[in-house]
From TrEMBL:
Official protein name in the record: Aminopeptidase N
Domain spans labelled Peptidase M1 alanyl aminopeptidase C-terminal: 568-897
Location of the Peptidase M1 membrane alanine aminopeptidase domain: 233-448
Record-linked InterPro entries: Aminopeptidase_N-like_N, Aminopeptidase_N-like_N_sf, PepN_Ig-like_sf, Peptidase_M1, Peptidase_M1_dom, Peptidase_M1_pepN, Peptidase_M1_pepN_C, Peptidase_M1_pepN_C_sf
Similarity section: Belongs to the peptidase M1 family.
CDD domains xrefs: M1_APN (cd09600)
Uppermost EC category: hydrolase
Keyword check for Cytoplasm: no
Amino acid sequence: MSSLREGPATVVRREDYAAPAYWIDTVDLCFDLDPAKTRVLNKMRLRRNPVVPAQALRLDGEELNVARVLVNGAGCSFKIDGNQLVLESLPEGHEPFDLEIFTICVPEKNTQLMGLYVSQGTFFTQCEAEGFRRITYFLDRPDVMASYTVTLRADKSKYPVLLSNGNLVDEGPLPDGRHFAKWVDPHKKPCYLFALVAGQLVAREQHIISRSGGKHQLQVYVRPGDMDKTEHAMNSLIASVAWDEARFGLPLDLERFMIVATSDFNMGAMENKGLNIFNTKYVLANAATATDTDFANIESVVGHEYFHNWTGNRVTCRDWFQLSLKEGLTVFRDQEFSMDLCAEPSARAVKRIEDVRVLRTAQFPEDAGPMAHPVRPDSYAEINNFYTVTVYEKGAEVVRMMQTLVGRDGFAAGMKLYFERHDGQAVTCDDFAQAIADANPDSDLARLLPQFKRWYSQAGTPHVQAEGVYDADARSYTLTLSQSCLPTPGQALKEPFVIPVSLGLLSADGQQLPLQLAHWTHAEEGSRTLVLTQASESFTFVNLDSAPVPSLLRGFSAPVVLECHYTDAQLLTLLASDPDPFNRWEAGQRLALRRALLAILNEGPVTTEPLDGAFIGAMREVLRHPQLDAAFKELVLTLPSETYIAEQLAEVDPQRVHAVREAMREQLASALQDDWVWAFETHKDNGAYKPDPIGTGRRALAGLALGMLCVAARHTGDAVWPGKAYQHFKNASNMTDRFNALSALVVSEHALAREALTRFHALFRDEALVLDKWFALQAGAPDRNGNVLPAVRKLMTHPDFNIKNPNRARSVIFSYCSANPGAFHRTDAAGYLFWSERVMELDAFNPQVAARLARALDRWKKLAEPYRGAAREAIARVAAKPDLSNDVREVVTRALAD
């Protein structure tokens, strides 16, 4: 068998792309499924690519035993060269020929969860990005698209359900208690979209008729006992089918569409054509076991994977450098889907704010770290390392800017042209951008397309500096916008981006002002999008009677850092009156961030009162505001995260950042105590559970209020609110309220927390996803006495902990290392030692998960001493391990690079 650890990885470069020397037209696969010895018969019809010089056929394969190779039915010579099967004596000319390869693999030993593996007695596959080569020898690249016929054979008593891509065309019994199922996928696809599932599963089924009149069968497969948690996933799938056809005219193109859930999965979900395989986290939900966040995530991920049916499957990537072609576009589509399902504009705004928070707390740091890369990377050693927030979330923002520049209808027209040109093809990001521009020839995008595409080729987060000058005599206001972007690895100089800046102007008392640029003949109401294309440009607005308050980057119209010297008075005006909900929230965040940074940078002990009366009063006004939605209030009253605060500093003392944010939270809890009581009592009762925006918002605000009341009680010694929280925990009729109450007790470190945790575990000991929450809450708890790391080590010895299950590993190890900076960054470096141990332990059996954990110390160079030196030592300790996977080695090598 071949090994992934034979030697250093080869760096793959986008500029070296070459078309394959052979095309594969048809694939006929036959599986005899056995956990210890699965036999795979792979019959392919190939032909030489006439535009490529004649050369040997090199097929990719990993951990396979070859039993037979036939060409046109006759034996042939072959050799194994590393992880490739090489055939040199093939038929000449360009006529198709048949190639048959018979191999054996061992799914039960496949701990990487890539290729064909067994989880709890069920067969699953994961082939993206390069997992198909662990099933059979193949041209494992996305630009080779073929038609697939798949026959599955297995013991019927153990594996009664046999699934693969496409449509079921035949099934029946076989001798010795076995049976078979034959599937035909009517659409050509790359091998990364291949899937099979075999096991004891049950299905929720729904028959629908699409807008165009097509009849389809939808199925959600889960393990027996989980059927009661599938209704929301099915409803989300039905809504996705309807939305894609209504918004973009893209119908479901298969007789059936299947979702299968598994608890052992490295990713969130996978869009295999017609047979989506999901992590249970994004399928299973009912009121008793799932939070509002879980329900929202399921809706989003089900939508995302379904939308891939067109943006990723019908049109796919030419090569893996084009990953954002499908992922960035499909994230944008799932964001639009979730927003379109919100009836109220405020609910749409809440969704937008939540998406931007992810971008700014995860992607912006990535853009500023050692793993920084363009949305379309130029090189990689391990493609799995580039399934990143840059490719996904920043890629989605690039697509959103296209829609901003051509309009919603223009974008739909561009999508239509994209599919007319490229259906059934493997294409590039350039092809997509060209289609959107060509469908809108008079747009700013068409005019600026070559420059706009720098968003695909340049890494880093642009900074936009804004300065405004009011001329009282001319009654004009000149806004100067400048842009810059810091160097990133391999890119020292950055050319100007195309940056759409949506803006409005407010009077000092909060009234929205008409907009009239100097060269316009009349004023316009509302917002206007300016397009910044130069290093610096000025825009003059006229007919203004007083200095306006600029509301810039409305709706977060571009993924940039906005640097504007707002006064506190201006921010308070925006917070109180801006008609753009995003900028209203942003004003509150800026006010909080300003106070946090002042307290952090001041010398001496951390003040216990970093917040001033004006800020506290503004927060009270938001909390008590009669017109604002509860969900929006909860977002405004949630302080910026420690990670986001740290990113604003040149040098970071994580313990000081943690102490300041804790002081801010404790002061806000105490100063608004009466208001928190009102908020909790007003929003705690919501009737029968519904995961709709109104109920979700009310529960979120009640949860925040309860947490704040417990924090306040911690300082006063008052036992009333912890007691009420425990009662709320016991009486809750849904997981959101129950978990919010449990979190309030744990975060405030009240004595009742231990009792509540014990009770919670007893209630949900048989619910794996709920236990993940239980583990994560403890690993992510505030670290006031250095006790979190010992607790984490103890959790890893718990009978319910299993490091080989990615969800469980993430719940403990990632919650501590990646999501709890105050506990992770210890002055004694014990957190870093724990991190290095776990990276190496995980790497031994699941390099993909290990590499993601390795990213927890990406920003070590920003740390102050003693953290910086200790972090570097921990990274070097991992890098020195001789048998590291390519996944982890790429991450730690880039982290250590100067």
